[in-house]
Amino acid sequence: MTDAGDIRLSDGRLGRLADLDLGRDAISAGAWPGHVAAIRKALVGLTVTADEDGGFPDRWGRRPFRLSLAGDSETAHRLLAARGLARIAPLGEQEACAISLLPLEAAARAQKAGLWREPAARALGAGEAPAIRAMAGRFALVEGKVVSVGERPRRIYLNFGRDFQRDFVATLSPKTARHLEKAGISPSSLRGKTVRVRGVIVLRRAPAIEITGPVQIEVVR
Fold it and tell me: Could you give all domains of the chain from N- to C-terminal order, each with its CATH number?
């Protein structure tokens, strides 16, 4: 593992851990080296196989890797999520694998293990507009009540407030909505529910997260 948290294989290929975010945006600069050291310590001595998830390299040339523990059906991803050394950041590689990691992440978050000790790693409240805006371009968790659901021909909006110029919103395409419905989540049924969404914050008229799959949205209550 490089100091930046990337994986470099013995053949020189550079990769990242599929469906995981190591918390670079949530951990203070001074604590980052120690966090990487903790990940290295968790993995040292393990015999693993690095399987490419079939995804394309990102702009830094990194491919998504999944580290499978030799002789075991478990993955190193489960180990890291359970210890709070990574957050689940689904990028469409293997949806079922990412979903299976969510309970492990939840347990680590409740225990404030690993990166969950960092204040910036917490789930932001949907009403914290300035804090959400400050996370533009970075991965974050946002939690709040869906006030209304707007359905348009090309876009569906999960509105977490009534000021569409300011309040946080989660957006998805009709195609993604159908995908969610197959997973038992109907966008229209989320009205009035408290949900947690995860993804990269983008600034449009208001701060937003684009939902591309069911792993990104959890019904809290």
Answer: 7-117 (2.40.50.90), 123-219 (2.40.50.140)
Total residue count of the chain as it appears in this document: 221
DSSP string, 87-98: EE---SS-HHHH
**Among 145, 144, 136, CA closest to 209:** 136
Ranges of residues in the chain whose predicted pLDDT is under 50: 93
Q: Give the separation between CA 38 and CA 85, rounded to whole angstroms.
A: 8
Where helices occur in the chain by DSSP H, the ranges are: 32-43, 76-82, 95-110, 129-133, 174-182
- The string of pLDDT tens digits covering residues 96-132 is 678 888 999 999 999 999 999 988 888 999 999 889 9
Side-by-side strand order, sheet with 139-145: 124-125, 139-145, 194-200, 217-219
Determine how many CB atoms are found less than 10 A away from the CB of residue 69. Answer: 17
Instruction: Tell me the backbone φ, ψ of residue 110, rounded to 5 degrees.
Output: -65, -35
